[in-house]
Amino acid sequence: MEAGFSEMRNELQSWVALWRRIQLECQQLHTELSKIREYKDIQGIQIKHQSSCVQLTEQQENKNTELLLLTQSQERQREELNKIRNHLYQEEQSHCSEQERMKTEISDLSEELHQKEITIATIMEKASLLQRQLRMELEIKNKLLAKQQLLDFRYKAVKSENTHLKEMM
């Protein structure tokens, strides 16, 4: 997208340069036209140089035609320049809108990520607490199992002793 903008700017600059050259030529033509008019006024006084006046008039008409053509060309170039400027402006606006949308999306995603990090930290804390509780319960159950095994062993010993005593009686 940046390359498109750069290309449009370059094209716009070349149109502006062309526009300035045309304006300079128009100024030169106007200066020449003024000189021709002055010369024509001086020559108009002198009747003997009517043929040169006719020639100057023709030159002036030719210059006027050239000037008219240059003015028309300049107007078309101005219209084209305005189209390019409008297109460039629309592209820049579109680019700015896209950047704003992306900034908003990044901000939303960052907030969502932050919330998920908080949730993960909370879950990890709860898991750690549950793990400690499970260790404590396992430790208690292991102690109870050891006591039960000891009691089973004593019970079997007493039972065996009772059986032995019964047999002896």
TrEMBL record:
<dbReference type="GO" id="GO:0007099">
    <property type="term" value="P:centriole replication"/>
</dbReference>
<protein>
    <submittedName>
        <fullName>DEUP1 protein</fullName>
    </submittedName>
</protein>
<keyword id="KW-0963">Cytoplasm</keyword>
<dbReference type="GO" id="GO:0098536">
    <property type="term" value="C:deuterosome"/>
</dbReference>
<dbReference type="GO" id="GO:0098535">
    <property type="term" value="P:de novo centriole assembly involved in multi-ciliated epithelial cell differentiation"/>
</dbReference>
<feature type="coiled-coil region">
    <location>
        <begin position="99"/>
        <end position="126"/>
    </location>
</feature>
<keyword id="KW-0175">Coiled coil</keyword>
<dbReference type="GO" id="GO:0005814">
    <property type="term" value="C:centriole"/>
</dbReference>
<dbReference type="GO" id="GO:0005737">
    <property type="term" value="C:cytoplasm"/>
</dbReference>
